[in-house]
Amino acid sequence: MRSKRIELFVGAFIVVGIMAFVYLAVQVSGLAFSDKKDTYQIVARFDDIGGLSNRAKVTIAGVNIGSVESITLDKDLYMGLVTMNIDSDVDNIPTDSSIAILTSGLLGEKYLGLSIGADDEMLTDGGEIFDTQSALVLETLISQFLFKAGDSE
Amino acid sequence: MKMVAELGAALLNWLESVGRAGIFLIQSVFRLPVRPKESLNLLVKQLYSVGVLSLVIVVVSGAFIGMVLALQGYSILAKFGSEEAVGQLLALALLRELGPVVTALLFAGRAGSSLTAEIGLMKATEQLSSFEMMGVDPLRRVIAPRFIAGVICLPLLSLIFSATGIIGGLIVSVNWLGVHDGAFWSLMQQSVYFDTDILNGFIKAVFFSVAVTWIAVYQGYECVPTSEGIGKATTRTVVLGSLAILALDFVLTAAMFGDF
Amino acid sequence: MTDAYIEVQNVSFSRGERLIYENVSLTIPRGKITAVMGPSGTGKTTLLRLIAAQLAPDSGAVLVDGQNIHSLSRSNLYKARKKMGMLFQSGALFSDMSVAENIAFPMEEHTKLDAEAISNRVLEKLYSVGLRGAAELMPSELSGGMARRVALARAIALDPELVMYDEPFTGQDPISKGVLVKLIRQLNDSAKITSVLVSHDVEESLSIADHVCILAGGRVIAEGSAEEIKASDNAEVQQFLNGEPDGPVPFHYPESSSVADKVSL
Ligand SMILES: Nc1ncnc2c1ncn2[C@@H]1O[C@H](COP(=O)(O)OP(=O)(O)OP(=O)(O)O)[C@@H](O)[C@H]1O
Ligand SMILES: [Mg+2]
To answer: B126, B128, B142, B146: best mutation site toward chain C, by most C Cβ within 10 Å?
Structure first.
């Protein structure tokens, strides 16, 4: 009789533990199990990736459509080569679209924003976006500002 | 010259005791049980006393630590006008560090010490010898279920700790301090990753559970079978267990998050 | 010489610096009751542990049923121990099991009996030590003497070939003492068990023992049948049997000459 109750408690304990795991996975990390969507990869080269990191989001009009897969150095051009995974259902990105490294808020994380072009041809797996705009680096901005201010005087 | 010899002897001694503890662990866990059903019953009993009975302290501590983190985080983040980020702070601190580490420390004090004392007392009252005399291996009968239960329970407790901590922090920041709950969750979900944060925290807890439970059962089994010896062994379990947790945490954190 | 079940051959054993046995040899005949007597602290419990291979001798050999018990592999040793029952001096009941579960444990572990057969045998064993009514109690609810009788019932649960009783009479009232003496005798006669009985009760021991060994100071000072021992003219033996404080056997634990300087409280 006593051991039945112990078994009940142990069962409840294990279930609560698993529920905590699921809660953390779904609610806290936002992991969606149906989210294993098909993706295709595109690349872009930037002069300065300025703090962009793996898994940063890729957006169109602020809507999340993919994420950065890897960031490496293109040794021939000395540029940052960013590979990103784009959701397969977003298959209508014109090849002449432009991409920029943006910052959410003043000090927030870096992400990629796509601006749609006008070409009839669409990007496919392995495609590249050539029109890139690098990250705004605060130091560069300030020095430009100071330089200009000095000029006008 | 004499000092070198003494140092060498101390090192050899230490290596020997590590080896003994390793063999002890292998002998207790990697032998098949004779009566599977009986072993399952023993395991369930230990899951109860090691896991279920630690639940209250883990839930209460988790909730309070989450609430305190939310208060502290809010007061600093509010200065930068980004109090929504309190969810992010809460989740990352709990999942990566506080969940596994604090749970393991509580576990060493609550369950580890009682494992040592229980096994030590069984040794002192010749119950372990008695098993041996009946042709029943005390390692398999007494040590194995306790060790396995510890290794199962601590990671589960750590998950429960993190979850209650986040709920506690949610109540404080959203319900009391008026943080916008949509922003609270979305910032949290953006910055918490399942593999780097939740899974890594879980792996930490698994490492801690092996270390703490191993120390606890070994100290009990090897203690001097007197009331004083049992007392000392219990203290050693808590001290060595806590140190092992903190040292392991440093190594694991460096390995997991070091390249960020 | 009769058929020996246990032969202790030239065994030496020491605990740290202290030599407990030096070159001791003795035999325990098959199917008989052997009483091992000796002053407290001479190593009677140690002898039982050597026979059960819980301790290993520094030199010499212990043969149990013809096998050198210390050279057996671990699994064979465990097999050999199934044929032994030991009543520990402290009882050593499993504190997380009830009295009945304690006695059932060796049967559950080593026999294929079903639950009903086991519970019948448990009650039978408990009846034989007069504690059938205590079956449901936990060990912490027993008195010292009761715990020892339960431990005795547990030691004989598997009907072993060899039973070692470490001081079964201590803490027993005269009635249960009489019952235990009869029980040990009866077990021995009916089941052809070899019994080793460690006891300070000279009278009880001599009354049931077929064979007697007296240990003192790390040696066997006398070995033989109860009558031979009683009739012995050895001064040490007579002193022990009659409980005289003065004589060749010292009452005091051996001291080194400087002990008076070392002990300071
Ligand atoms: N674990 C131990 N470590 C060191 N010495 C021990 C240990 N156990 C027993 N001894 C020593 O071994 C000697 C023999 O002990 P043992 O328990 O065999 O005595 P005994 O003859 O059974 O005595 P008693 O009749 O009082 O039970 C004692 O003098 C004791 O000092
Ligand atoms: Mg003794």
So the answer is: B126
Give me the number of domains chain C comprises: 1
To the question of pTM greater than 0.90 for the whole model, the response is: no
A10: contact with B, CB 8 A cutoff: yes
Decide if C114 is inside a domain: no
pLDDT at C27 over 80: yes
In chain A, where are the structural domains located?
1-33, 39-142
Same domain, B76 and B194: yes
Number of structural domains found in chain B = 2
Instruction: Report which protein residue has its CA nearest ligand 1's atom 14.
Output: C43
User: Is A5's Cβ below 8 Å from some Cβ in B?
Assistant: no
Instruction: Tell me the three-class secondary structure of chain C, residue by residue.
Output: CCCEEEEEEEEEEEECCEEEEEEEEEEEECCCEEEEECCCCCCHHHHHHHHCCCCCCCEEEEEECCEEHHHCCHHHHHHHHCCEEEECCCCCCCCCCCHHHHHHHHHHHHCCCCHHHHHHHHHHHHHHCCCHHHCCCCHHHCCHHHHHHHHHHHHCCCCCCEEEEECCCCCCCHHHHHHHHHHHHHHHHHHCCEEEEECCCHHHHHHHCCEEEEEECCEEEEEECHHHHHCCCCHHHHHHHHCCCCCCCCCCCCCCCCHHHHCCC
Supply the CATH number for residue C41's domain.
3.40.50.300
Indicate the top mutation candidate among C13, C22, C24, C44 to test ligand 1's pocket, ranked by most ligand atoms within 8 A of CB.
Answer: C44
Using CB distances shorter than 6 Å, the residues near ligand 1 are: C 15, 20, 40-46, 89
Interface contact B41-A3, CB threshold 8 A: yes
In the structure, what pLDDT confidence band is assigned to residue C161 with cuts at 50, 70 and 90?
Answer: confident
A touches B, CB cut-off 8 Å, minimum 3 pairs: yes
pLDDT 10s digits, C61-93: 888 888 888 888 888 888 888 888 888 888 889
Closest-CA distance, B99 to chain A, in angstroms, reads 12
Q: Look at residue C122 and tell me if it is in a domain.
A: no
Query: From atom 7 of ligand 1, which residue's Cα is the shortest distance away?
Result: C15
